[in-house]
Known about the structure:
Layout: H1 10-43, H2 48-76, H3 78-95, H4 102-130, H5 136-144, H6 146-164, H7 167-176, H8 184-191, H9 196-200, H10 202-207, H11 210-215, H12 223-254, H13 259-287, H14 289-309, H15 314-333, H16 335-342, H17 348-363, H18 365-377, H19 379-400
Helix pairs in contact: 1-3, 1-4, 1-5, 1-6, 1-7, 1-12, 2-3, 2-4, 2-17, 2-18, 3-4, 3-8, 4-5, 4-16, 4-17, 5-13, 5-16, 6-7, 6-13, 12-13, 12-15, 12-17, 12-18, 12-19, 13-14, 13-15, 14-15, 14-19, 16-17, 18-19
Amino acid sequence: MQTWYSTMNSSQRRTFWACFLGWVLDAMDVQFFAFVIPTLLTAWHMTKAQAGVIGTSALVASAVGGVIAGVLADRIGRVRVLKLAILWFSLFTGLSAFTNSFHELLFTRSLQGLGFGGEWAAGAILIGEVVDKRIRGRAVGCVQSGWPVGYALAALLYWVLFSALPEQYAWRLLFLLGILPGLLVLWMRRNVDESAAFESAAEFRAQSGLFDTFGRIFAPSVLPRTLLASAMAAGALGGNYTILTWLVTYLRETQSLTVNLTTMYLAVNIFGSFCGYVGMAYLSDAIGRRWTFSLSAAGATLTVLAYTQLHLPLSALLVLGFPLGLFQSGIVSGMGACFTELFPVQIRASAGGFSYNFGRGIGSLVPAAVGITSASVGLAKSIGVWAAASYVVVFIVAVFLPETRNKQLEGQA
């Protein structure tokens, strides 16, 4: 029996691995900050509110970067924008190693966010357009499973560096390693082709301008889908970023875990996240995008509340980390394929990039809100309430979202 991967030709496989590695390295660079928060709280006397602001500023900047990248991807190509985004976020992650204050790190992380947002806008649309409609959910979801792989790499590097070096040196070297993803672009220059769907819209590009492309996102026939997709992204990423930003600090401070134990607990959560990306990708091709979103959102809501509100023993938290990762990432898994299918080729990257990243901008306020409200209600309650509220939004949106599974795209045989 043929697997879905074996049905792809060599060009499609190269595109798959380029996008997958882009996600891996993107996640690795983004997650470095979550690991250094406890160190900087002590070394710089930084407050949790300031840490939340840095995390949110990068996400807000990523929303801006994603919108810009989406429009550019519809004008100059998905592959070209993907390469530019990888180079950009690699550079500013590396420069974060040389910062010495809250404001300096705020600056470099904000600029890093521009490239971080652009990577999704170009990469998710590219892989969604390249593969066959019958395997689109699995292909795009498995590409996005690169996120927990990158998270795991960040966790591994954190464990190695913080175990071997004093913390005041380890956090700087961690950021400095963020320059390495730029090497992927050298391979992509020769091995990744533009999608046929993008090429099929050449006449539209010749007859329209940059602002015409962006303006069509808000046309009466498209606007309802733009709003639904934006709300979906806001809820999914609001909950996801809350956990990604604050889980390390929750385990280190609220649960008083050592570096080694924190790494072990994160490993369980990251493995669950990987399984969520892959498992829900299969499920979305089997039962549809809407049902998969609904099931994932319900599971994420219940799991995050249990994890943060029930005062469970540490052994139970270790086990619960798996479904926490499974459901939080299961929602995100289906978004790339769904957003590719929701919009016409002429504005696909622009509309998908805007929806995902406008939603990301709204969702990125949630980690900051957790940091602010934790001062009065405690970190555990803050994480649970804000993340659960975000996932409820996803569940509501899934009720109204049109089903798009197996949609034929332009330029495909």
